[in-house]
Amino acid sequence: MTTTTKATWIETLISQYATDSRALHKYRKSLDLDDPQEAEEADTVSEILSDMRYALTWLKRGRRPGSRRGAEITDVYRQREMLIKLAGQEMSSEEKLRIVDALLLLSDRERTCFLLYVAHGLTCQEISSKLNLASSTVYQYVTRAKDKLRVNIS
Questions:
Q1: CA nearest to 20, candidates 51, 54, 52
Q2: What is the pLDDT of residues 34-91, one digit of tens each?
Q3: Which of 6, 18, 5 shows the shortest CA–CA distance to 55?
Q4: Residue 4: which residues within 8 A CB-CB, separation 6 or more?
Q5: Alpha helices per DSSP H over 31-75
Q6: CA dist., res. 130 & res. 78, Å (int)
Q7: In b/e form, how buried is each residue of 105-130, taking b as 16+ CB within 10 angstroms?
Q8: What sign results for the dihedral spanned by CA atoms 29, 23, 20, 68?
Q9: CA distance 57 to 25
């Protein structure tokens, strides 16, 4: 699937979610909350609407809602797009070796945290719970790894 096709597909999906969300909201308003069965139905519809809003926010922003990671430029999708663009370019074996050598200069923890953060798109909080580390420690590892890579790859 090309990037243009994917963008069009996502725009279509956003449009469908928004339309269906409005229809569900109208349906929920039409329910009689005094009737126990309809009140239960209204609760179920409210939960569905909440899930739809979450999905819509994710689709529109391109990242998980509620994520507190910095600017939009650092979100997972943009990082992956950048990596795909880089991967699409021909890299000399010397450049590949420089990247591998730079990654090997990182400590095991720095490399693990950096790859989970960049390649897998996990937040520092998620990494900290997986590795049983403090979130601030994970942040330090990722920051140190970025600094070391910046110096050693340039």
A1: 52
A2: 999 999 999 999 999 888 888 888 777 766 666 555 544 444 555 555 555 555 666 6
A3: 18
A4: none
A5: 36-61
A6: 24
A7: ebeebbbbbbbbbbeebbbbebbbee
A8: negative
A9: 17
CA 131-121-3 angle, 5° bins: 165
> In this structure, what DSSP letter does residue 74 have?
G
- What pTM did the predictor assign? 0.45
Q: Rounded to whole angstroms, how far apart are CA atoms 41 and 31?
A: 8
Which residue is it, tokens 């992956």? Answer: 80
Q: Give the amino acid at 112.
A: T
Query: Which sign does the torsion angle of CA 147, 138, 113, 110 carry?
Result: positive
Q: Is the dihedral of CA 63, 65, 120, 141 positive or negative?
A: positive
Place of tokens 């109208």: 26
pLDDT digits (tens, 9 = 90+) for 84-127: 555 566 667 777 778 778 888 888 899 899 888 887 888 899 99
| pLDDT of 33 above 50 | yes
- DSSP string computed for 129-140: HHHT--HHHHHH
